[in-house]
Amino acid sequence: MQRTNIYLGKDQLRLLKHLAAEENKPVADLVRHAVDQFLRSRLEDDVTWQNDMTALIERVRNRVSPTIDPDEIERDIREARQDVRATRR
């Protein structure tokens, strides 16, 4: 483990100390647990996003005629990717 400093608001720290006392754990354990949950949820979002993008690309490929220029396909995919990212935000 590596030591780091974080700045918390007065109420955040007060509530963390209260929870830590209730659970008989150090505040640091609660913070590590919260960070783990945050990271896990972000990774799940990335996997979900990647699956959505893969499905979208497949749908585009299935609708595209083989006579269409590859640059046009890439442009469509790039625009679809931007749409998905904008939706995520």
UniProtKB/TrEMBL annotation:
GO terms of biological process kind:
regulation of DNA-templated transcription
The record's section on Pfam families has: RHH_1 (PF01402)
Positions of the Ribbon-helix-helix protein CopG domain:
3-39
InterPro entries for the chain: Arc_rbn_hlx_hlx, CopG
> Would you tell me the protein name for this molecule?
Ribbon-helix-helix protein, CopG family
Instruction: Specify the species.
Output: Sulfobacillus harzensis
